[in-house]
Structures are given as C-alpha cells and as structure tokens.
Design goal:
The protein is an alpha/beta fold. Helix 1 packs across helix 3, helix 1 crosses helix 4 and helix 1 runs parallel beside helix 9. The strands form four sheets. Strands 5-4-3-6-9-12 form a six-stranded mixed beta sheet, sandwiched between helices. It has a two-stranded antiparallel sheet with strand order 1-2. A two-stranded antiparallel ribbon has the order 7-8. The chain contains nine helices and twelve strands. The longest helix has 29 residues.
Length: about 325
C-alpha cells in the first residue's frame, strides 16, 4: 500500500505538468522525435502538390491516370529516462531539491511520450545501477516511474555515469530517445588552506571525460539528450559568513568563510569554467543539452530545446 503523502506528491506533479504537456510539449515531442522509418499505407489518386517521386507507376499504367503511394511514419518509440539518484540530488537551497525537479522533468517527458503512444523505461543510477524498469505504455506505468524518481532509496550515494551508460547499451538494443537527467557532479576534492578554497560539489571534469567515449557511443546508437539540473548555491556561494559544508556523496565536511568576496568570486569563476567544459564535452559527443536550475522556471528552457531541434530537423 502506497502511503497517502506519496500519492499526494505524485498527483501534484502530474497536475502541474499535464497542462504543459497537453497544450505545448506533446506536439513538440512528436515533431522532434521521429520514428524508425516510413510504412506503406495505401495508394490514392494524385493531387496537385504531391511529390512526383511518390507516383506508383504500375497502378498509374493500369488506371491510365496518376496514383501516388501514401506512407505513414512508423511512430512507436521508446523513451529511456536515465536518472541520477546519487546523494547530491537531495540538495536544494530553495523550495525544491534537484531530485524533485528531476521528477517533474521526467513526468513531462514521460507523459509526452505516452500521449504519442510511445513506451517509457527508467534507469536509476548512483555509482551503480540501482533500479531498472523496462519500457511500457500507459498512465499507470508513468505514475510508477515518477514515484521511483522521487522516492526510491538508493543503496549508495556516489556517481558513476559509465555504469548507467553501459547498462543502457546492454538492455536497449533498438534506437531509443535517451534522456540523462543529472547534475553531472562527482565526488569533490574539498580542501581549504592558505586562503584558497577548492569548492564543494565541484563539477568533476574527470567524471565527465571518463564518460565521454560511452556518451558518444550511446548517442550513435540512440538519440541522447542531457538534462543538467543545478542549484544556484552550486554555481555561486552566498555571503552567509562562516558555514559548514557537507558533501552529500562522501559525507566529508569543511568549514568555509563565505564572507570573503575573493573566495566567492574564485568559486563562481571555477564553476563557470567547469560548466563551459561540460558544454564542450556534450557538443563534441554530438549531444544536445538542457541546463536547468532549481530557482528558475523550466518551461522556457524546454520550449527553446524543442524549437532548436525542430529548426535543425527542418534544415536537414
């Protein structure tokens, strides 16, 4: 029996995201993510504006006037949600944690998928694969996916994207839309001394670069999209005086003087460089990325992503 408070939370997310899906994103999802090919449906009489190359010459010869072949898209797709449930996802300096925002994004994409009769699967990972839900259709299935993203209790707290990508390549043989939802944060090297601060929750270049080959390999087989979710305090330290920071993945703590403007500036600059490096890595792997923050609305970022993909598809 699912506790009432869990059902309430899931229902709140469904209500919050369903209108956006029905009014905006379901159509954008259908337009941007295409099926595996085209299936022949029927032959009909030629109409002005039809492509000449679709003319069925055998039928045309028999009937003495032109007929064209009509094709329909082989629509059914699989959406695989690969969601990071490591310890850093529990952090949130505002009204919601990164994991709660991840659940909303997963909800939007999953409901968009089932409205287009696609299947939805889920991989939850830390530094190992914690849970796999095979792709299925239907609202009940999507509600289960949302519940697991929100409330699943992982055995471990670290992060290893390679484990998730290797598992994905093993269990998903046909091309799938693969959305990796993560903060792309690894275990930090957190030290202080001699007036220098190596910032907590640093985006680990080593984590990202170690995953580069697998990201590129996954994107060759599937259509991979990276959704990065960050909290503003992970990008810029607030001026709160002396505070104790604890790393959610290792449990390591350190006392930091955030009243020093130079340290805050150095932290922000380093994080900006790490973000830029991560962006270059995604581009090099041919992966589209959506960058979200817990303190900002996500609607515009999602709409911009779909618009960009649609323009690229149209040009192509």
């Amino acid at each position: 029996m699912i506790p009432r408070e869990i059902l309430k939370k899931i229902r709140q997310i469904e209500l919050r995201t369903s209108r956006l899906v029905s009014e905006t994103l379901a159509g954008a999802y259908h337009s941007v993510f295409k099926g595996q090919g085209m299936n022949f449906e029927e032959v009909r009489e030629y109409q002005p504006g039809d492509e000449v190359r679709t003319i069925d010459w055998n039928v045309t010869a028999r009937m003495n006037h032109p007929f064209v072949k009509k094709f329909v898209e082989e629509r059914e797709l699989t959406l695989m949600l690969v969601v990071d449930v490591s310890g850093s996802g529990l952090f949130g300096s505002r009204t919601r944690s990164k994991r709660e925002l991840a659940a909303e994004i997963a909800s939007i994409l999953a409901f968009s998928a089932i409205r287009n009769n696609d299947k939805v699967g889920l991989i939850l990972f830390t530094d190992t694969v914690e849970k796999f839900i095979p792709p299925r259709k239907g609202r009940k299935h999507v509600l289960r996916v949302i519940r697991e993203v929100l409330f699943f209790e992982p055995r471990r707290r670290g992060t290893d994207l390679n484990q998730a990508l290797e598992f994905l390549l093993h269990v998903t043989t046909r091309k799938a839309i693969t959305v990796v939802i993560s903060d792309f944060i690894g275990s930090p090297a957190l030290q202080s001394g001699k007036g220098r601060l190596r910032p907590q929750l640093m985006l680990l270049e080593s984590l990202a670069h170690a995953s580069f080959n697998l990201l590129r390999q996954a994107n060759r087989r599937h259509d991979v999209v990276a959704v990065q979710i960050m909290d503003p305090f992970e990008l810029e330290l607030p001026a709160l005086g002396r505070i104790v920071l604890e790393d959610a993945e290792t449990g390591e703590t350190v006392e930091v003087s955030t009243g020093d403007a130079r340290k805050r500036k150095a932290f922000a600059e380093r994080q900006a460089r790490a973000q830029a490096d991560l962006g270059r890595l995604f581009r090099a792997a041919g992966i589209d990325a959506i960058h979200l923050r817990t303190d900002q609305p996500y609607t515009m970022a999602l709409a911009k992503f779909f618009e960009t993909r649609e323009r690229r598809r149209t040009r192509g």
